[in-house]
Write a structure and sequence with these properties.
The complex is a heterodimer. Chain A is an alpha+beta fold. Chain A contains 13 helices and 17 strands. Helices cover 26% and strands 20% of the residues of chain A. In chain A, β13 and β14 form a beta hairpin. Chain B is α+β, with helices and mostly antiparallel strands. The longest helix of chain B is centred in the N-terminal third of the chain and has 25 residues. Chain B starts with a helix and ends in a 12-residue tail after the last strand. Classes of the chains: A alpha+beta, B alpha+beta. The interface between A and B is large, with 85 and 67 residues.
Chain lengths: 537, 420
């Protein structure tokens, strides 16, 4: 019996030591001296990263079949303020001037003639080919459908500019207006046939491709030229998992706030083709400096465009495969009760717009063509972050970028600008209602000051908040409330010594689930916000 | 025993904890409250355990499936296999296929296959297609085929044929033809001509449970049953496709006409010509989310006095492609008319449902074209689609002769069909 007790004691001691080791790792400072982190240090070399592919059909079927709304998980890839630090995925760009908005990532300028065609494909949704311009730069060329001249090419350019300004990495996309005679064929040009085989390309094949390109009133043809990415191309990224060959890729992609919140930007732009295959990773730098940079690609399915045709009204409303009760109801009721989005009125007199409207647009329920794992996991906090990016575009910003679509009819520019403004405001109203949209917290003159974004952008009326102040123990994370104070004035009872922490929870008086807790650290003679947490409806 | 058990438990627990700890290090995910140095540490830990990227096991298996099965079916080139290709009613068929699409810079397509079905129907065909000539305006086709439809249903001639007279016959067609087709006006208009030969053999059916046609019918009431013919034939065709792309269905009108002259080479007085016409009209509404589709089709044979149309080349009605509430090949005669209408509503991008109605009749001579002895049906269906067309459909048709359920891999309103 004694021996048994000894055994038990020994066993427990092993277990307790183990547990203690684990626990010590968990008990740590809540906020560190470098919080909030502004930039993710990415120090590992990705020199060995190899190309990966995504099977588009499998991706579609797998994600459609396993579709269900997952349980909410908190986002990662954020700092203590809930913001996304700069990384190889996302860059917080300061407010851009009109010129910068219109330029975006485009530093190399328009392709310069003559254009030497080096390869073409006959497969795919739209015909496309690859050229080298007069400077030897390689561009991928895409065209518009005959039914909707200017639609897809403009979508690709505008989409890239909006997403670049929002902070993402995109290619340099240009509208290229050129004469047919500017194109010549490389002696080594190849064409990929339907069988997948490559053959030498001849002039008549090139002419056939160019014949399919709508012609402008001045006789020039209009194309979209996307500059080939710099660095070593290693294929698309997935909206889930991490790359096992990238030391800096630590966060499962479906938990990244910059990818979850992208859903809101895509909803705004109606970029429904939100699949992994429309992304591209490249390795920039060499040896110890090699880093993977993650890009978004291919925005021809944005706005009213579905690349080779105007968008189906279903786009943005439902997944391609039936998954909803609404679809089942429609099947059973013989389609006699059309949804509002089915009846949307589109600007048929403006074919360059395609089918782009605000009718039936609900930012809370917008859907890409098929389930995207990161989008499915988006929390109201992620969406709020995305909505802030969308709302940061002023009316003038939007017009400046839409201008870059280079529409020949100014009415098209007007229409798309108007729709984007309306969709932006719907997004602000929808997502700013889910959380308390308070930003820019400062303590000034002994009072807590902030900006109510819903009110600032005119999409929501001002809410009133109650204030619950507390002192904060950074070691334990314990909050000690200050009783009897509910105003924006910082209670005198709170310590204000260097390095001390205080905080305040603001609760919406009407919707008490909407709260914001902001934590400040005393830094010199001012309170510096170091932590923000939001609860949602 | 007890001591060693507890020791084992203790060691295992410690190992598990340390493993969990090391695992946590390996996959340490930075939280919002990590320091920059903490993130760097995690990156360094991962740097030591980098592995090549690889798709999931499921995706790898799918890649193999796509490469071995799906791609050869969708975009075949080389030795592969063929499904389908038999006349309607042949059952599920499968067989080897050798196709080359990469000759002459993809201007010459050679396709040879042989399929057999669960109903013991067979077909072998070899074709050479010269495509994309004259900047896609011209194509030539040479085809040789043998088909053995072992159990073609036959109920007798005319609208009043009795369902109780169901019989089976074997129809063997051996044919060869050569033709050309010209495409105008941005491929909207096509016209062509082909000439060929047709050797026919008709015999007892091979499907158990039904009497052979020659046991119920005779040469007097079923022309061509006893004396079969061989033919030289020539077919002129013209198609105007005036549709524009829309979301669920095309929008607009498709007109087709095809006239085939059969010259009897066996002295059985079976020279005639067959005129087939069809108009299909699609009217999408509610932004293309609903569609009304109409089809009118007429097939009429003309022959000189003293000539006849053998029953195995007569127009027929009944089956998944025309009168959907009736058995396949339910009605035979020298002519047939068909009107079909569908109301289709899109349920999802890949699924469309339909309510349909068909009406048609067969008649013995062109002067009897009309609404006499009309046979009608109605029903509903589900269609599975890709972006461009119906891939498969499931239709249920109701008529006075019962309920028919069809599961087929084609468009409900397909193009004009030639059985020979």
């Amino acid at each position: 019996m004694v021996r048994l007790q000894q055994c038990v004691r020994k066993t427990l001691s092993f277990v307790l030591v183990g547990v203690a080791c684990q626990a010590s790792a968990l008990i740590a400072q809540q906020y560190h001296s470098d919080d909030p982190i502004q930039k993710v240090p990415e120090v590992g070399s990705a020199q060995g990263a190899d190309a990966q592919t995504i099977n588009a059909l499998y991706d579609f079927m797998y994600h459609s079949a396993k579709y269900k709304t997952p349980p909410a998980t908190p986002s990662l890839g954020v700092n203590t303020l809930g913001e996304v630090p700069d990384s190889s995925w996302f860059t917080n760009r300061p407010r851009l001037t009109t010129e910068e908005l219109q330029k975006g990532k485009r530093v190399h300028g328009d392709p310069q003639p003559p254009f030497t065609v080096v390869a073409a494909k006959t497969e795919g949704v739209t015909p496309g080919f690859r050229i080298k311009d007069g400077r030897g730069l390689t561009y991928f060329i895409k065209v518009d459908p005959h039914t909707n001249p200017e639609m897809a090419t403009a979508a690709d350019v505008m989409g890239a500019l909006f997403l670049y300004s929002a902070g993402y990495n995109v290619p340099e996309n240009y509208i290229l207006l050129a004469h047919r005679e500017d194109f010549r064929l490389s002696e080594k040009a190849t064409i990929t046939a339907l069988s997948g085989k490559k053959h030498p390309m001849n002039r008549s094949q090139l002419d056939k491709i160019l014949d399919a390109v709508p012609v402008e009133s001045d006789g020039r043809i209009r194309l979209m030229a996307s500059l080939s990415m710099s660095g070593r191309i290693i294929g698309p990224f997935r909206y889930e998992f991490v790359r096992s060959d990238d030391p800096n890729d630590l966060i499962p992609h479906d938990r990244r706030r910059d990818l979850r919140g992208l859903a809101v930007l895509f909803a705004w732009l109606n970029h429904t083709d939100a699949k992994g295959d429309n992304s591209l990773d490249s390795v920039e730098g060499k040896g110890a400096d090699a880093r993977i940079v993650h890009h978004l690609l291919d925005f021809g399915d944005s706005f009213g465009s579905d690349s080779d045709i105007a968008k189906d009204p279903r786009h943005g409303q439902e997944f391609w495969l039936p998954t909803s009760r609404e679809q089942a109801n429609r099947a059973m009721t013989l389609g006699l009760f059309p949804a509002s989005w089915e009846k949307a009125k589109y600007p048929q007199h403006l074919p360059a717009v395609g089918n782009f409207t605000t009718t039936g647009f609900n930012p809370l329920t917008w859907k890409p063509n098929y389930p995207n794992p990161a989008f499915l996991e988006m929390t109201p906090q992620d969406a709020y972050w995305g909505a802030k990016r969308v709302m940061s575009f002023s009316n003038e910003d939007i017009r400046a970028i839409v201008d870059q679509g280079q529409f020949s009819n100014p009415a098209v520019t007007d229409y798309i600008t108007k729709v984007l403004i309306a969709r932006r405001d719907l997004i602000g109203k929808a997502w700013f209602s889910q959380v308390a949209s308070l930003e820019d917290f400062v303590v000034a003159d002994g009072r807590l000051r902030f900006t109510d974004l819903g009110q600032k952008y005119g999409v929501l009326s001002a809410s009133t908040y109650s204030y619950s102040w507390f002192s904060f123990d950074n070691q334990s994370g314990h909050k000690s409330p200050v009783a009897g104070v509910s105003s924006d004035a910082v209670p005198a009872a709170l310590a204000s010594s260097e390095g001390s922490f205080i905080g305040c929870t603001l609760t919406d008086m009407k919707q008490t689930q909407r709260t914001v807790t902001v934590v400040f650290r005393r830094d010199g003679d001012q309170w510096k916000p170091v932590g923000i947490e939001r609860t949602s409806l | 025993m007890t001591r060693s058990t507890f020791r084992t438990i203790a060691v295992c627990t410690a190992i598990a904890l340390s493993y969990a700890s090391s695992l946590a290090q390996e996959i340490q995910v930075p939280s919002p409250r990590d320091t920059a140095s903490g993130i760097i540490d995690a990156e360094k830990v991962k740097e030591k355990t980098l592995r090549p990227v690889a798709p999931s096991h499921g995706e790898q298996e799918f890649d193999r499936f796509e490469e071995k099965i799906f791609d050869p079916l969708i975009n075949p080139n080389g030795l592969t296999f063929q499904t389908g290709g038999l006349p309607s009613g042949g059952g599920f068929s499968l067989g080897p296929r050798y196709i080359r699409r990469d000759w002459l810079h993809e201007h010459l397509v050679s396709d040879t296959y042989f399929v057999g079905s669960t109903k013991k129907w067979y077909k072998g065909q070899s074709s050479l297609d010269f495509v994309g000539l004259m900047d896609n305006h011209l194509q030539f086709t040479a085809v040789g085929a043998y088909q053995n439809a072992a159990s073609m249903p036959y109920y007798g001639e005319g609208s009043n044929s009795s369902k109780d007279n169901r019989s089976d016959f074997r129809r063997e067609f051996t044919s060869a033809r050569f033709g050309g087709q010209f495409h105008f006006l941005d491929q909207k208009l096509s016209a062509g001509y082909s000439v060929g030969g047709l050797l026919v053999n008709v015999g007892p059916g091979d499907l158990g449970g039904w009497p052979s046609t020659d046991k119920i019918f005779n040469g007097a009431n079923t022309r061509g049953l006893e004396k079969q013919s061989n033919f030289i034939n020539g077919t002129a065709s013209i198609t105007a496709n005036l549709t524009t792309p829309s979301f669920s269905n095309p929008k607009g009108l498709i007109l087709e006409a095809q006239d085939t002259q059969f010259w009897d080479q066996s002295g059985t007085s079976s020279s005639f010509h067959l005129l087939q016409t069809q108009a299909t009209y699609y009217v999408p509404f509610i932004n293309g989310m609903r569609t009304l589709a109409f089809r009118a089709r007429n097939e009429t044979t003309f022959h000189a006095d003293g000539q006849q149309v053998p029953f195995y080349l007569q127009p027929t009605l009944g089956g998944p492609n025309d009168l959907r509430g009736y058995e396949r090949y339910r009605y035979y005669d020298n002519g047939s008319s068909l009107l079909s209408g569908e109301y289709k509503w899109s349920v999802a991008g890949s699924v469309e449902m339909a309510l349909f109605g068909d009406g048609g009749n067969v008649y013995s001579r062109p002067g009897l074209i009309g609404l006499r002895e009309l046979r009608g049906d109605g029903g509903f269906g589900v269609r599975f689609k890709n972006k461009q067309q119906e891939i498969m459909r499931f239709d249920v048709g109701f008529s006075t002769e019962g309920v028919k359920v069809w599961f087929v891999f084609n468009n409900a309103f397909g193009r004009l069909y030639r059985s020979f």
